[in-house]
Fold:
Amino acid sequence: MFETLRFVGEQFRLPGTLYSYETITLGNINSTYKATYRNDKYDLKSYLFQRVNTVVFKNPVEIMANIDRVTSFIREKYPNQLTLHFHHTADGANYFINEQNYFWRVSNYVDSITFDSTDDLAVIAATGEAFGHFQMQLSDFDGSTLCETIPDFHNTKKRLDTLFADAEKDVCGRAAEVEEELEYIRSVREEASELSIRMANGELPTRVTHNDTKANNVLFDRVTKRPILVIDLDTVMPGMAMYDFGDAVRFIASTAVEDEPDLSKVFFDTAKFRAFAKGFIQEVKSALTAEEIDALVQASFSITIELAARFLDDYLNGDTYFKCNYPAHNLVRTRCQLQLAKDIHRKYDELRWIISDIMAH
Ligand code: GN1
Ligand code: MG
Structure:
């Protein structure tokens, strides 16, 4: 890997010599490395190298163009704000394809901390602010200029249709084992699909959204614990505001990690939900319609079901999409997300009350 990174770094004309690297294990799709370079004066400077998964992202060149548009827009509007910056090759491209046909990109490394899970409600509220603020910054960005990097990415209806079609095909013979999970998803199919159907019919607004709002996609200052940057812009494209909210609380308000095997540890923490919602709503309140606010709780349920369905679908298809650390990883992820979705559903009234309480203050 050292040699590969050294060669890729040369293409981006990084100054100094590669000194060390480490693999960053966050992320289920791309492969990420922190590479540290040393100059003649023995100063060290780090960069982030990413190999984009081109099975998942079929148009990586368009993705880089999207990211370029979005970050240039933010830089122009908010010159003092830190944005992601990608390095260019001698040909002026912000990516490099090596002889193995691997797609590489290199950005500056931002010294920071990220939170996979935290009990610190101030950090959770700040994560809400960061994603809300990100969405507001792009509120006057023309979404039609963006390539849809993964078509129907958060089209829950289509995701569920695909799941049931693949369960029929059952190419790996795993469907019998997951009948219970399929049955539950079937029972909530309509409810989980509703928002995506309304959006497709134009009944809910389409906005430019992040679409992958896991807490660890916000970089925080190590000392002040304030957000400094929203990262992972691969899926920035037209979408639903409420789904950015929903995906974030799905992750941050869970009492357990996303792939917790012990389901007795998996709950939806309403205090964490409140903290995130407060931060998020404070930023986006002026822009969202009453219908969107009203749909925040349903969106949290829907996207949790959607992700469970995506994990389960990948399990049925032989684990080709998400990186797996052990054979039944996708099934464990599915069960964990379903457990969480059920708890969200149980707490619907309380969650809706929390949203109206925040709106009233
Ligand atoms: C994937 O690789 P990562 O962690 O950025 C996935 C998200 C899921 C997430 C679940 C392009 O994101 O949609 O919510 O895993 N990204 C893509 O952990 O499919
Ligand atoms: Mg991502």
